[in-house]
Amino acid sequence: MNERSSEAYGHGAVWRIAGPMILSAVTTPLLGMVDTAVVGHLPDPIYLGAVAVGATIFTTVFMGLNFLRMGTTGITAQTYGAGDPEAIRASLGQAAITAGCLAAIILVLQQPLLVLAMQLLAPSPEVAALTGDYFRIRVWSAPASLLNFVLMGWLLGMQNARGVLVMTLTINSANILLDLWFVLGLGLDVRGVAAATLLAELFGTCVGVVFVRAELANWPGQWSGAALAQLRRYRRLFDVNANLFLRTMALMFVFAFITARGARLGDVVLAANAVLMNFQFLLSYALDGIAHAAEALVGKAVGARNRDGMLLAVRRTFSWSLLFAGLFTLGFFVAGGLLIDALTGIDAVRDTAREYLPWLIVSPLISFWSFLYDGVYVGATRSREMMVIMVGAALLLFLPAWYVADAAGLGNHALWLAFTLFMAGRALGMHAWWRRIVGANFYFPEGTRP
């Protein structure tokens, strides 16, 4: 291991990216809490219901399109590692054009999308009317929201986590301040919440463009019209993003299945599962920051064809992920009950959540592998393998495990057992496949393997 690789892919390099990414992630749940608190103080609960339904629609749509961020990070990190200014510009331009096209589709199909969402979510007529008001304003944030995915992914691929942090802080802080002004000050109810999100995303785009321009100034070069105009030049981007989309859909299916089956077990079980899922989301906020470091560093090493640097980046991010997972397991064991009490004041829900808490105590040591390898695979642009493993774990492990355990009368334990096996299966599959990739030197992007 040479000194250059040790510095470029060591602990310091990991935390120059992971630190800002963890800080940016912490602000996300805070924004949700402020949204809830602001609308929750309006005189009728239908306002809170409308924001919840509307936010669910956009969360689902935008989560499904988050491949724009992941795919852009992996491809950009590899062009950065290769030191290719024109490819760096192409990775940004192609992803931005793709984001614009997808946003245009959302805007054109906004009415059918709203009708379909209302049919699936089936809110009361009063809530549905307010949700429509929220939707018709916030839908115009789609161009900025999708472009922000691209800008964040590109900046992360360029090893600039600070830019991502400033963008995130700008979006979330502006959203909070505008929420307070529009809803409590101007009395715009759910329209104010939607308008605040729209403007906050636009502010984030402006900040992102400033950081992007500064990065490009450090990489003198020319924009290639052919790379942006010819559809065949988008093949790699489409291949990567299509697999990431299918992978995300499989993951969303698992979470939706848990929610749906939990609802059939009663309102108390449904609420208890929702409380416990916050443990999993809290874990992901921290470990995703380290996974983002893996994306950027592994991608840079692959682009530079630096095998030693790539392996060092994986080892360093693994060690930090393992440490954090151990701390979360200890924290959930010691303070899990206190966290449950903080999240709900309903005794029946508290008691039910405590019954299933052991599944969440062991979850960090099982889940962290998947979070880490997601970052590694994104950096190496091995999205097909990610998709195959995720879909396989969902269809061949999660569903059969739930079916057998449910038939055995395990009730809600069947859901948590299936979820735990799903995460373990993902971890084992990704670890085994990665060892094969490294052993056969398959980690170079298609077409550039020596």
Describe the structure.
- By secondary structure, the protein is mainly alpha-helical.
- The chain has two domains: 222 residues, no CATH class; 188 residues, no CATH class.
- Helices cover 86% and strands 0% of the residues.
- α3 packs parallel to α10 and α16 runs antiparallel to α17.
- It is globular and about 60 Å long.
- The C terminus is likely disordered.
Primary descriptors:
17 helices, 450 residues, 2 domains, globular, disordered C terminus
Cα-based radius of gyration, to the nearest Å:
22 Å
Number of domains: 2
Query: What is the helix/strand order?
Result: HHHHHHHHHHHHHHHHH
**Cα-to-Cα separation, first versus last residue:** 21 Å
% residues in beta strands:
under 5%
Number of β-strand runs: 0
Helix content class? over 70%
User: Which class of secondary structure composition applies to the elements?
Assistant: mainly alpha
Sheet of most strands: none
Low-pLDDT parts are: 446-450
* Mean of pLDDT: 86
